[in-house]
Write a structure and sequence with these properties.
It comes from Tanacetum cinerariifolium. The protein has 240 residues and is an alpha/beta fold. The chain has helices at residues 14-19, 32-47, 82-93, 110-117, 139-142, 145-151, 171-184, 220-223, and strands at residues 3-6, 23-28, 99-102, 125-128, 158-161, 187-192, 228-232.
Length: 240
């Protein structure tokens, strides 16, 4: 083994790579602008004392257009929360990487990549390799129960409901959505995540360790089994 690649938030594994004399690399599956923010976040954290959303002027991210603090990623909106501390912890450790592979390309994010590719002392080398897309389905996806169910429904008859990785509903919103689907009698596939009643909740601090189906109204699954299919946490969206 000559190198160890870690995912977005797996930087603690860098210690293992260094201990065994293996080159540590990171794979950043999001945008070059997102990576530029991550690498700039430790400096921003030192420069700014207030919440970023309260800054009177837009935040200057290297190579990117200025962004209002309130429009930054949800996990960095509240600097007292564990979600922010977790992101900052990983952002600081990115500097330990020998290189970072980012899922983007020059024609899409020229400005951000130009800044990322500029050599600076202590800064890891960045390799734009995007766009990376899944060109074929895995056997697990091919056997997915929700896809089998979808294949048995009339054409153009199913409503797909998913709020993505950053979309977290409150308990009240989850119940309202469930009631609306049931009353509509509309065929649906619903990707359900555990609710979070915090006002600024996201995927990063949602109650992901709890079974999302346990938060649905009592007997909802039984009453909608003929018209709907509920998937906990994740579904093969591209194939759907």
């Amino acid at each position: 083994m000559v190198a160890l690649f870690i995912d977005l938030f797996g930087t603690d594994a860098f210690d293992v790579a260094i201990e065994f004399g293996v080159a540590p690399y990171a794979f950043f599956p999001s945008t070059a602008m997102g990576l530029s923010l991550f690498l700039h976040l430790p400096k921003l954290d030192q420069m700014v004392s207030c919440e970023y959303r309260d800054l009177p002027e837009p935040v200057q991210i290297p190579g990117c257009i200025p962004v209002r603090g309130i429009d930054l990623l949800d996990p960095v909106q509240d600097r007292k929360k564990d979600a922010y501390k977790w992101v900052l912890h990983n952002a600081k450790r990115y500097m330990m990487a020998k290189g970072i592979v980012v899922n983007s390309f020059k024609e899409l994010e020229g400005g951000a990549l130009e800044a990322l590719l500029k050599e600076e002392p202590g800064k890891p080398r960045v390799y734009p390799v995007g766009p990376l897309i899944q060109t074929s389905s895995s056997s697990d996806v091919e056997r997915s129960d929700c896809l089998k169910w979808l294949d048995g429904q009339p054409c153009d008859s199913v409503l797909y409901i998913s709020f993505g990785s950053g979309g977290t509903l409150s308990s009240a919103q989850l119940n309202e959505l469930a009631m609306g689907l049931e009353l509509s009698e509309q065929r649906f596939i619903w990707v359900v995540r555990s609710p979070n009643d915090q006002p600024n909740a996201t995927y990063f601090d949602s109650h992901g360790h709890k079974d999302p189906l346990g938060f649905l109204p009592e007997r909802f699954l039984e009453r909608t089994k003929d018209t709907g299919f509920v998937v906990p946490s994740w579904a093969p969206q591209a194939q759907i």
